Structure formats: structure tokens, C-alpha cells
Amino acid sequence: MKGMITTTVLLLSSTLAIPSAASKPSGPCTQEERENFPNTCSMMDLELNVAARRLGAFSDFMGISVPSRQRASIIVVDNEKGRHDHLHVPDLNEKNEQENHPVEIMSQLRQLKHVRRAALHADETTSTPTQSPRPVVMVHGLGDSCFNEGFSNFTEQVGSYLNTYAVCIPTGDTREEDVYNSWFLNMDASVEVFAEKIRNDPKLADGFDMIAHSQGNTLARGYIIKYADVYPTVYTYMSLAGVNAGVGAVPYCMPDHQGEFSDVCGMLEELSTKLAYTTFFQEHVYPANYWRDPDMTHSEEYKEFSQLAQWSNEGTATPYNQDYFDNFQIPVQYVWVLSLYDHVVWPVIGEHWGGMAATDPYAQPIPMEATEVYQRDLFGLKTAHESGKFSFEAYDGTHSGWSDEDLYGWLDEYF
Questions:
Q1: Is 12 exposed, middle or buried (0-12, 13-18, 19+ CB in 10 A)?
Q2: pLDDT (average), residues 398-413
Q3: Rounded Cα distance, 9 and 147, in Å
Q4: What are 2-52's pLDDT values in tens digits?
Q5: DSSP readout, 67-121?
Q6: 82 in the Ramachandran plot: left (φ > 0), alpha (ψ -120 to 50) or beta?
Q7: Which of 104, 114, 147, 377 is most deeply packed, by most CB within 10 A?
Q8: Are the CB atoms for 286 and 183 separated by under 8 Å?
């Protein structure tokens, strides 16, 4: 773990390295901001392709991005013979016109299951035609991109298995812009771009389901609370390892069971909190928008500056927003999926909307029902839960490490 932390610090240093004096400032920083935050402004000054390459490499290294799909094994059960056959799954990039794609095989099996289900009820006097699955909007996380091989393959995998239109909605028109904006286009601004792209897609006009990963869950939530009443409706929303309740630690820098940080991680924690709750970082650095230091949730800094605080009706910068409450009730179901070995999101229980106890904010996790946001029902979390809209799942893997078996199980169950 110490090696990982050291490498993280070194990579952060190289990623945010100040350009040479010959570089011409072209980013959004004022001179005062440039003096106060030289590394961040220098990063925003870099040419787009250079910045995107460095930021993407960091997310890949930290295991934040969805990786290119690896070879796997799909188990097919022959119900008549009780036999388990293992089908080899080739890499999604391999082109083989002679064989059915493994995802297509699974899609066919899924359709057969529906046929069997229909056959069981063939003697019923009334029946309803089988409806095609709704379109699915896919949402990537920090430093990832709809145009990256990994997330592109993931989107194709979901669409093929469900036999429906699946589309990843980027916040940039190119891979470079999409990666860059995941870092430097703030949460509110990103949701506006995201919502407009959804509104302009005619295939989504009648509503859709949504699957979001990591930071992408803030885009999904933002769309729901800000636009679900006027733009196309979200029916089922599944969150994979989401930063739903915010994050309170740098990746791979979680406190120990006594709530203590290592010296390096303690420094990063301190710096992150002091920088996150400033106008500059809230306007320019996306991860700062959902930074939620458990020591600071009742502070004036958090309530005034945090975009997450405003979305949760905890904040003081904007008045209470009833639309956020009402719109959160619009989706038919929410599926919250937690990574059991997540070293990116802390507290991990936040992926299920839990948090940390106010009496012991770094050592004692508490479930969703015990959090203040839930008990006061500030944006409708309690109301949605008590309405039966919530399902909770978990997978035995890292931040981006769910298996195909996990994924297909969720798709079968909820989509």
C-alpha cells in the first residue's frame, strides 16, 4: 500500500507538472488564480491532447476507468441434461465472422428464457405482447471516455445482451474533450451538456434506462433531479461503484480502522479539503464538487461552496429546491451496486448511500438509514426508499472489477 501511495503522489506530481516558461497561458485562470493555484492552472493550459493523455493515464493507472474487456468464461446451463458447458469468450476486438459473438450468444439465451417464461403461461386467458427493452444510456467516470476502448466495449456489451439501443453520452465531442471535461468541466456544467445530448437523441425521446459508473453517477443523478420532469424520463437507473454520497479520501488513501491516515495521505486529505471548498476549485475541478470530508459536513465552507451540498439540499448557497426532491421520485427503480474491494471511493458504504458517524467520522461507517441526509429526507432519499424503489447489490471485485456473470445477472434482474 505504501508503494501505491508513493506512486500516486509521484504520478500526481508529473501529471500536474508546470509547463515550461515558453508555454503561453491559454486556460480559464485569472492572474490571481494562476498565482494561487499554479499547478491546476498549468494543467488547464496544456494542449488538449496532452492534458487528456496525462489525465487518462492517471485514471487508468488508478483503476478508475473501465478497462478493455478481458477473456472470460460464460457458463451455459443445459436445463434438460443438467450440464454446465463453458463457452470461450474471445476479446471484443477480435474480428471473427465465422463465430457468433459471445454477447450475442448470451442475448439469444436471454430471449430463450423469455420464450420459456411465455410458454409456462400459454394457457392463461389473457396475455400481453413481449416488449422490447428500453434504450440504455451509459455514463462513464473520471478520466474515462465514451470513445475509450474499454467503455465503448462495455456499452456494446450491454446493448447486445439486452438487444436494445445502448449509447454512451459524452460531455465532449472527441475523446480528448471527453476526458478533459471529466476533470475540468464542473458538475453543474457537465449535467447541462449531458442533458442536451440526451434531449437531442430521438432514440431516447420515449424514455430510457441508465447505467453509470463511478463519477458518472453524479451526471446520472444530476439529470434526474434537474431534468427528469421536462426531458425524456429515466425508468431504471443502476449505479456501479458510484460516488453517490460523495468521497472523503484520495484514492488508495483510506484511513485505517482507528480512523488514522498515514503521513502522506493525511497531507493529501488536508490539502484536498482546503482546496475543494473554494470558488476556484468548485468552478473548475469536477472531483472537488463531490468532495465530502466527514469532518466538514456541518461547516459553513461545505454548505456554501460544495455543489454536492446544494444538490442534496444541505447547502446555503442556493435555497431549498423542491424540484430536486420531486424529480428524485420519478424513476421507477434504483439499483445501487457496491464494490466490496473498492480503493477509489471512500467511504465505500457511500455507494449504498451510507456514510460516517458524526461522533467518529473516520472510523465508524453507518448505513443509509442512519445518515442525516436520509433521516431529514433532504432530497427525497428516504421517500424513494420507503416507496420500494431501491435495490442493493454488491460484487466481489475492485472499483471497475465486476464480472460478466455479475453484469448479466443484474441485467436479467432489473432490465
A1: middle
A2: 97
A3: 28
A4: 445 444 443 444 444 434 333 334 578 999 999 988 989 998 999 999 999
A5: PPPPPEEEEEEETTTTEEEEEEE--TT---TTS--HHHHHHHHHHHHHHHHHHHT
A6: left
A7: 147
A8: yes
Indicate the SS3 state at residue 266.
helix
Residue 404 neighbours by CB distance under 10 Å: 19
Q: Cα–Cα distance between 63 and 343 in angstroms, integer?
A: 9
Contact 198, 204 (CB under 8 A): yes
Q: pLDDT band at 285, cuts 50/70/90? A: very high
Residue 383, classed as helix, strand or coil, is helix
Q: Is the pTM of this model over 0.85?
A: no
Q: Contacts from 256-260 at CB under 8 Å and sequence distance 24+?
A: 257/363, 258/363, 259/360, 259/361, 259/362, 259/363, 259/364, 260/362
308/302 Cα distance (integer angstroms): 9
Q: What is the pLDDT of residue 107?
A: 53
Question: H/E element holding 136?
Answer: strand 136-139
Place of cell 458447458: 85
Per-residue pLDDT at 263:
87
* Residue in the structure block whose three cell numbers are 459471445: 102
Name the one residue in this structure whose C-alpha cell is 493550459: 45
Dig out the grid coordinates for 286 from the structure: 469536477
Q: How far apart are CA 182 and CA 196, in angstroms?
A: 17
Supply 97's cell numbers: 465472422
| Contact partners, residue 84, CB within 8 Å, separation at least 6 | 75, 76, 77, 78
Whole-angstrom Cα distance, residue 270 to residue 267? 5
For residue 259, give the H/E element and its range. none
Residues 6+ positions from 143 with CB-CB distance below 8 Å? 55, 56, 58, 59, 60, 64, 65, 179, 182, 183
| Nearest partner of 171 among 146, 151, 154, 153, judged by Cα | 146
CA distances from 325 to 35, 315, 328, 390 (A): 40, 14, 5, 16
